[in-house]
Amino acid sequence: MKYVYSFSEGNKDMKNILGGKGANIAEMISLGLPVPRGFTVTTDACIKYYEDNENLNEEITKQVYAKLAELEKVTGKILGDINNPLLVSVRSGARVSMPGMMDTILNLGMNDEVCLTIAKMTNNERFAYDSYRRFIQMFADVVMNFPKEDFEGLFDKIKEEKQITNDTELTALDLKEVIDKYKQQYKKHANTDFPQDPKVQLIEAIKAVFRSWNNDRAITYRKLNNIPSDWGTAVNVQEMVYGNKGETSGTGVAFTRNPATGEKKLFGEYLINAQGEDVVAGIRTPQSIETLKDIMPKCYEEFQKICTILENHYKDMQDMEFTIEEGKLFMLQTRNGKRTAEAAIKIAVDLVTEKMISKEEALLRVDATSLDQLLHPTFKKEALAKAKLITTGLAASPGAATGRIYFSASDAIDAYKNKHEKVLLVRKETSPEDIDGMNIAEGILTIHGGMTSHAAVVARGMGKCCVSGCNELTIDEINKTIAIKEDILFHEGDFISIDGNTGNVYGEQIETEERKISGAFETFMNWADEKRTLGVRVNADTPKDALTAKNFGAEGIGLCRTEHMFFEPTRIFHFRKMIIAETKEEREKALNEILEYQKDDFYKLLKTMAGYEVTIRFLDPPLHEFLPKTNKEINELAHKLKISFDSLSKRIDSLKEFNPMMGHRGCRLAITYPEIAIMQTKAVIEAAIKLEEEKITVEPEIMIPLVGDINELKYIKNIIKTTADTLILNKNSQVKYKIGTMIEIPRACIIADKLAEEAEFFSFGTNDLTQLTYGFSRDDSPKFLKDYYEKNIFKEDVFSSIDEDGVGTLVKMAASLGKKTRPNISLGICGEHGGDPKSIEFCHKNNLTYVSCSTYRIPIARLAAAQAAIKSGCKSKE
Amino acid sequence: MKYVYSFSEGNKDMKNILGGKGANIAEMISLGLPVPRGFTVTTDACIKYYEDNENLNEEITKQVYAKLAELEKVTGKILGDINNPLLVSVRSGARVSMPGMMDTILNLGMNDEVCLTIAKMTNNERFAYDSYRRFIQMFADVVMNFPKEDFEGLFDKIKEEKQITNDTELTALDLKEVIDKYKQQYKKHANTDFPQDPKVQLIEAIKAVFRSWNNDRAITYRKLNNIPSDWGTAVNVQEMVYGNKGETSGTGVAFTRNPATGEKKLFGEYLINAQGEDVVAGIRTPQSIETLKDIMPKCYEEFQKICTILENHYKDMQDMEFTIEEGKLFMLQTRNGKRTAEAAIKIAVDLVTEKMISKEEALLRVDATSLDQLLHPTFKKEALAKAKLITTGLAASPGAATGRIYFSASDAIDAYKNKHEKVLLVRKETSPEDIDGMNIAEGILTIHGGMTSHAAVVARGMGKCCVSGCNELTIDEINKTIAIKEDILFHEGDFISIDGNTGNVYGEQIETEERKISGAFETFMNWADEKRTLGVRVNADTPKDALTAKNFGAEGIGLCRTEHMFFEPTRIFHFRKMIIAETKEEREKALNEILEYQKDDFYKLLKTMAGYEVTIRFLDPPLHEFLPKTNKEINELAHKLKISFDSLSKRIDSLKEFNPMMGHRGCRLAITYPEIAIMQTKAVIEAAIKLEEEKITVEPEIMIPLVGDINELKYIKNIIKTTADTLILNKNSQVKYKIGTMIEIPRACIIADKLAEEAEFFSFGTNDLTQLTYGFSRDDSPKFLKDYYEKNIFKEDVFSSIDEDGVGTLVKMAASLGKKTRPNISLGICGEHGGDPKSIEFCHKNNLTYVSCSTYRIPIARLAAAQAAIKSGCKSKE
User: Fold this and answer.
1) Which among A462, A536, A305, A496 has a CA at the least distance from the CA of A390?
2) Closest Cα to residue B425, out of B434, B472, B417, B489?
3) A337-386 tens-digit pLDDT
4) d(Cα A272, Cα A282) in Å, to the nearest integer?
5) CA dihedral sign of residues A217, A223, A224, A225
6) Chain A partners of B623 at a C-beta cutoff of 8 Å?
7) Residues facing A391 on adjacent strands
8) B710, B741, B750, B758, best to mutate vs chain A, most A CBs in 10 Å
9) Which of A772, A834, B249, B699 lies at a CB distance of 3.0 to 4.6 Å from B613, suitable for a disulfide?
10) What percentage of chain B reaches a pLDDT higher than 90?
11) Does residue A34 have a pLDDT over 90?
12) Nearest to B394 by CA among B462, B454, B341, B445
């Protein structure tokens, strides 16, 4: 096994074993660019290191020394040599960039003797001592894991003694003193002297970088970014070049285009007389890259040339690090630059215009999920201008939200369901129990927690606006208030607005507005539509959502959840009356009160989506979800219903279930109470007939949920057909409608051939299907699945993408059985996976007809569908 | 479509269209036996009748009249004729016998004129009028559905007026008066005269019998016996013969062998001068069939000959009805006689000895499920002799049970779990909410409800002793007492004993004893073992159950549920401490307290089953099941644990789940708390090592429940293997053990090929698999599934037998994928289906290795496995 590669042996396609940094350095060398020489210890070596219980075996060590010898030959310098010593940097570099998460050691090779030689050779004592003290400090921290402050404290103390504020003011002598103190401190911690043998230093440094793959920061970062923990990191050992050798030296970073806007213009910054870490530390303010033109015109010209070479070679915007050592430019790193979604689209479209890449390549360049950032509502500019900023937290999840504040998930849900308010959930910090409250809130505001807190992570997953870590706020959960510095006080129910893009919090209601798809974004989405074969529909229950979705490119509604309509205050009473009713007649009477409302719902929805198919799912949730929970509410309802508190409580109790997810819901409700299905059918068909009279053609699709047996479907279909056909016949109407079923029960997948005899379409409800296939209750599993993620039993959230091995096999089975019976059957997916790129690719591969997702995920779905089509080499639509 | 068959056109194999009775009458005619002639209206006609909304169409009516004409030709009599009138009976007859559930009409053809003719022809006015009045009464009841009491009342009034107690004392004149009154009463109800046209009578009677297929009695009977409601009934129209024509006439029923014991001896009874209904009515006591020998020796001799002919022909014990009309014997019906399980076995074994049938046929003759009756415990004879009978109810479910009485399911569960008592559940009547209480009770006693009450049906399903409808008892649920006639009082916690075979209730504890397999039963079971290829294991958690099961023929344990062991009072505290513990160390300490107990459990269990495989399932239920529920109990535990009530309550609350069935249970517990799996592994392996030291070879199999992903299995297997192998190595032991998994999650079936890489065996947990495949919570679904059964969406209990289309497909998939990876993988089933004959046949067909079932179902499983092997033409073991 080859564990170590010289830079000259690699290329950009070897990222898996050399890491991104190593592979790109190798590529730059093959392009003839000025890059300091070195070698890469592979990710395989890292994996082996962990397999061997954090030991670097002899074979790897041998190979490292062999490549070191080659490096010494190429550079003419020797590690630890008193005459011409080699100094190297030791840097991490994983397959994908994990900026700042792992460790780096610079100036390795320094020891007491080498330091003197360097001082002599460079004729710069201060430089030599400064390099040595930096090395000891890094080594103590990264390799030995000694407390940072013990070394920093010593440094600060000497600065204090010398009455100095800037590091640069320290003299060589001062630094020598620092070194002595550092070595004493080192010995105190280690019980041995600081290692003078550079070969020992090297091996220890390589091991330390391997270890840093599993530091807390790195683990969290991987989890957030779904990076497998078994990849490991490579280590790059590279000859040091110095940007801190005086006024003709410097170091910087630059992008070939603007990573925020995508503008085609060199973008970056640098520091004169500095090392890389100084740029990161932020003590000195770097200068814009453009100023380099005047200061070092030759270097700038060369750098510009290199930028063009790299962009033409990589055919993408590059993010580069460089160092200028005494007037000579060295490239330390290049990679495809990270960019905002906006920039990604602009660059992709520009690169097509510049004939650098094809439309297909452009479409593949943009991470579909990132489009989410571009479409969330913003505050109206004029409204925002007048708004009063009260405090600022972390911009944890994009968007703008305004709503009445509530301090617990249950209060928020109550206000949402019963008072029909727009709510903002305010919590010290959120926990998995808050999920339902987060789900119905416009936005989430937390006092504690950073960018990776529960609130932040979950809100981003939900595409919901969140400001976290708003430390200035104090919360009083008993009196239900929040305060800022004791003089600004807000009560439960007051309006607050939050901006998830800036972290700003405003003490009032601010009008928001939807965003549009235009410019390069529009061009780009049109290309996506040319390439994709999958249809994209929206999950929407209201005309407002439907309209927004249509503007975002939705081609119909894949899931209209009718139950949301029953929560409106005007209807919920009648619906509760229906639930409480003891006879069919009472039930029918109560339902009749809702019929006109429901008809109006469908009328508006169908009208908004005229010309497109609209899939209406019949009542799905268990009835107890519609009933009041607290004694106070029960009392009120009992009073209104003119029945006793006891008998109402008893009825509510009788509806309680041990496992409601597998209880009396979905089509099972329509079997017990066919009158509900009859009312809903009337509402759909009467709405369609009314639109027909207005010469508007609509295509309602009635969807029966939670079917597991053919006889369930037959029974309910018969009820729907009888009701619908009678209405159509009586009105002499030509209205067409379809009846289909959701496939969300494992058994439905297995008997899909039989279901297709009755169902004109299938829509996969992969949320419930995933729950049942795994036997994981979505409400309960987060608690124990965290152990799964921690113990690496599951690599990523089991609900985030379709589980191809399990759920996917069932979906494939159902699709193929369904088509066997009814070759032209329409196959959709309407669970949350309908907006997940990985799942969309699965749907494309398995020839589904369409995906349906939430409003803000429509562009994601369009792009992901196009990417799937391109990847599978599928022909475009036109 | 042929809707009507003459008796001479049918044979015994046409039961599906002619019904059992019609087919057997036809067969007897083809055997040349004396049978009154007639015809059968088919079950197809019945189905058509219902399809046409309870109308008899012209075609059927036409065919009835055509066959009537044929009958008139054969008999030389004509329906309604004044000179030689034909009288017929109209009887139901379904595919399978539903005794007494549907309706019959006799003497049809009678009217005012015919009655006079009959009187003249028979020279027996009294007979003629009696027949007529019986006919009117039956017609009014069965066809017209008029209140029975309105006619019976009139009859009783006349008897009263005449000061007569016996019907036979009524004179012809009296009966004429009855007829007049009946006709008036009829007119009062119907607003028309009693129909004089016999053809109208006939068609109305046929329709009435069809209708009786759907009367309440019949529907309940079908449900109880899993008879599909779409089969319909046939109707037999047969020339009347009369057993009530004087002292040379009579009627009776007889069996060719004793249906209670199986003894080979004619068994039956008859009445002289009577019609069939008189035997049923029970007003006169019938005589034993043997006495007929002296009274009518010629008839008796002929009857005996016919018995032999029928047994030889049907090769089975026959149940026959006969009538003697003025010295002439007529056979009215024959069928394979119903018998007790004991008789069934005796007869089957005897028939083999008599060379009438083969062993295979004998094995197929006995309903496997019926063996359940033979093995339930009985009271010890000496103990029973001394016991005091306090009252008697209905013998609702066989067995004998003794225990402390509790009046609610929760109190019973509490006493069982926390006081480790044997409990008897006493309820006014049970409801689905009582299921858990019924399940842990020794037996169930109810005040209300008959043989088909909830308690009776569920108890029979559970194989649990039940006495229902014990009306003499009064229950005081507040003071928790039961009383009999105010002078006998029992309090909660007192001992009572019930006998489910007799309905007797005793006011004390009575020792019970297990029953054995011996005699003909033993012979029979040995034949079953010769034929079957499926292994049969038991689901048992205690050495006692294991021993009983071994005596019943169990070949190992297929499921030992370890959680039951934790409920013992000595252990539950430590287990609760483990649950409450906040650190791994505390948990390990608490578990350590349980280790020795658990080791002892396994030691005894393994020892009992030495030489056989014993599958031990690791902890499965959610932890909250082990924690106290009431405030009082929580307080007690908090005190013992030295923590506050609040913090304990909080911990208990934190374990509550929305859908516990899909929550933190099964292998998910071992992932969060590996220390539980480690403790259980130690217990198993240390027990095995101890037995090894005693030179007893045991074969423990460790089963990991609720696995859905390969990584779950890998993680836990690794923990178990490390723990076990260390113990074995340290003790220098040769103990062998296996690690396998339950397949009870749909996803496990789909990825079974992967699971088989790690699992040495699969055991299908079809209970949970059925719940998840259908998405039916077993706790909640009974409430709404009743609508499914009523609406004929499901034909039978969805949990009673394996659902071959859905769950079965998953099982087949898992079996075949598992074998692909590991050809010799052991495949068992350990859900309740392991004791269900239909499911056992499925397991045989799909080449499973064994079934595992509850103790009392072992013989059922052995027989069902043999039957499955015979049916599939499989070679026998030897």
Assistant:
1) A496
2) B434
3) 888 888 999 999 999 999 999 999 999 999 998 898 788 888 998 999 99
4) 14
5) positive
6) none
7) A505
8) B750
9) B699
10) 75
11) yes
12) B445
Residue type, B724: A
Q: Which residues have CB under 8 Å from A389's CB, separation 6+?
A: A504, A505, A506
Q: Is B779 on the interface with A (CB under 8 A)?
A: yes
User: Which residues in chain A have Cβ-Cβ distances shorter than 8 Å to B751?
Assistant: 805-806
Chain A residues near residue B791 by CB distance under 8 angstroms: 671, 715
Tell the residue number behind the tokens 């994601």, with chain if given. Answer: A860
B150 φ/ψ angles, rounded to the nearest 5 degrees: -65, -30
A660 to chain B, any CB pair closer than 8 A? The answer is yes
Q: Could you please report the per-residue DSSP string of A352-401?
A: HHTTSS-HHHHHHHS-GGGGHHHHS-EE-HHHHHHPPEEEE-EEEE-SEE
DSSP string, B606-656: HHHTTTSEEEEE---S-GGGGS--SHHHHHHHHHHHTS-HHHHHHHHHHT-
- Beta B504-506 vs A473-476: how paired, if at all? unpaired
Burial B241-263 (b: 16+ CB within 10 A, else e): bbbbbbeebbbbbbbbbbbeebe
Decide: residue A116, CB within 10 A, 0-12 exposed, 13-18 middle, 19+ buried: middle
E-assigned strand segments in B33-75: 38-41
From the CB of residue B876, how many other CB atoms can be counted at a distance below 10 Å? 15
Q: Does A662 touch chain B (CB under 8 A)?
A: yes
The verdict on a CB contact (< 8 Å) between A664 and B780 is: yes
DSSP annotation string for B136-152? HHHIIIIIT---HHHHH
In three state form, how does the secondary structure of A127-142 look? HHHHHHHHHHHHHHHH
Q: Closest by alpha carbon to A703, among A852, A567, A820?
A: A852
CA–CA gap between residue A323 and residue B127 (Å, rounded): 127
What residues contact A597, with CB distance under 8 A and at least 6 apart?
A565, A568, A570, A571
User: Does A573 lie at the interface with B, CB-CB under 8 angstroms?
Assistant: no
Size of interface A-B (CB pairs under 8 A): 171
Mean pLDDT estimate for chain B: 92
Q: What 3-state DSSP class applies to B737?
A: coil
Where is mean pLDDT largest: A421-430, A433-442, B28-37?
Answer: B28-37
HEC assignment per residue over A451-509? CCCHHHHHHHHHCCEEEECCCCEEEECCCCEEEECCCEEEECCCEEEEECCCCEEECCC
SS3 B550: helix
**Run of H or E residues at B78:** strand B78-79
Residue of higher predicted confidence among A610 and B629: A610
For position B432, what pLDDT does the model report? 66
Three-state SS at A56: coil
- The overall pTM is greater than 0.90: no
φ, ψ of residue A238 to 5 degrees: the values are: -140, 140
Length in residues, chain B:
878
Active site members of A: 454, 830
Give the percent of chain A with pLDDT over 70: 98
Rounded mean pLDDT, A688-714: 97
Asked if pLDDT for residue A432 goes beyond 90, the answer is no
Q: How many residues does chain A have?
A: 878
Count of H helices and E strands in chain A?
35, 33
Is residue A47 within 8 A of residue A230, CB to CB? The reply is yes
ipTM of the complex: 0.81
The per-residue b/e assignment along A747-763, b for 16 or more CB within 10 angstroms, e otherwise, is bbbbbbbbbbebbbbbb
Residues of B in contact with A663 (CB under 8 A): 777, 780-781, 784
> How deeply is B344 buried, as exposed, middle or buried, from its count of CB atoms within 10 A (0-12, 13-18, 19+)?
buried
Instruction: Please give, rounded to a whole number of angstroms, the shortest distance from the CA of A767 to a CA of chain B.
Output: 13
